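Observation: inputs received (chain + adenosine monophosphate).
Thought: call the complex predictor directly.
Action: predict_structure
Action Input:
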Amino acid sequence: MNYIFLGPPGVGKGTQAKRLAEHRSLPHISMGDLLRDAVANRTPVGVQAKSFMDGGKLVPDEVVCGVLVERLARPDAKAGFILDGFPRTVGQAESLTKTLAENKVTIDRVYDFQADRAALIERLSGRRFCTKCGHSFHLKALPPKQEGICDHCGATLVQRDDDKPATIANRLDVYTKQTAPVSDFYRAKGQLTVIDAMAAADQVFASLLKAL
Ligand code: AMP
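Observation:
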């Protein structure tokens, strides 16, 4: 099964993608995670991507499309995948369509997670991530048992630089201008299902399972 998860930053698509990936034993392919790894390892892609990410801008299509092609070529993606945070422009969607067609792979369904802007700002600004195991928390909705410490591995929790207020506004504007048209691209192909993501994560996951 091959799925694409779309939606604005902070809508919770990463959390839902991780849950579905475990539930269906599929690889969760997060472009944001791939890029953050590249930045941390100072690879050529990471060096190119860093300034765009720091400013809440999109990394150029040719860079992310290259990262995706390499990731999809890995053996675990042959049995299916969940794409999270890709495509984010119509150009990326067209490039993905071409790559998949060349490999005789089809997308089964595209899920578009939606929540209002105020909820997205509140979710993004309260997010905290574990520096070691990557688990995510939220100051209000999912607080760690001990402030600033990961419940799972005891490492320190941090806020992503791009979850700080000035960058959040920029990311949401970039989403409206550049990524929202991707939903229209898949709607026109009859592949899009909208998921209301205003509810708590468990309820959203239940809606997703029902829609699958
Ligand atoms: P995310 O973790 O999905 O919120 O992504 C974090 C950042 O990585 C974004 O703000 C962009 O700078 C970059 N990024 C992630 N996915 C893409 C993509 N498909 N195209 C361009 N930039 C991306």
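Thought: report the result.
Final Answer: The two ends are 10 Å apart (CA to CA). The beta strands are 2-6, 28-30, 81-84, 109-114, 127-130, 136-138, 157-158, 192-196.
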